[in-house]
Amino acid sequence: MQYILEQGVCHGTVFNSCHTSSAAKKNPLTEIQEGELYLCLEHRTVRVREQIINLTSKEFDILALLIANPKRVFTYELITDLVWKEDCDFYSRKAIHNHISKLRKKLRFEPDLPNYIESVAGIGYKFEHL
């Protein structure tokens, strides 16, 4: 996984800027590259194999949360709290499940692409670092 920030190298990871203005350089945001999956927080864009993937706001927020924390398991409750900013209930679990399902379909538009988001039975989801 490659985290791309303003500049420099940290722990073997390459950092670059995803913006060009001097104002943006004062407050850099992050790009993350995982294999053929690319995410830019500044522009709220996602690409797979250089194809732009159109995500809803919640789908993007869920993906950003998971990809920024590879292999960390996020419970339904934590996803609800961090993405929806509210308590988790049965409806929230269904909403998260539906968003994850749609997100998986969008990211895996070709059968040879990996499943980036892994279910952890009865607990939640995690981004599987490839």
Helix/sheet category: alpha+beta
State the major sheet.
5 strands, antiparallel
Number of helices, where a helix is a run of at least 4 consecutive DSSP H or I residues: 4
Whole-Å distance between the termini?
8 Å
Shape: globular
CATH homologous superfamily label: Winged helix-like DNA-binding domain superfamily/Winged helix DNA-binding domain
- How is the CATH topology named? Arc Repressor Mutant, subunit A
By oligomeric state, this entry counts as: single chain
Describe the structure.
It contains four helices and ten strands; from the N terminus they run E-E-E-H-E-E-E-E-H-E-H-H-E-E. The protein has a single domain (2-127), classed as Winged helix-like DNA-binding domain superfamily/Winged helix DNA-binding domain (Arc Repressor Mutant, subunit A, Orthogonal Bundle). The protein starts with a strand and ends with a strand. The chain is globular and about 35 Å long. It has helices at residues 22-26, 57-67, 76-84, 90-107, and strands spanning 2-4, 9-10, 13-14, 31-34, 37-40, 45-48, 51-52, 74-75, 117-120, 124-127.
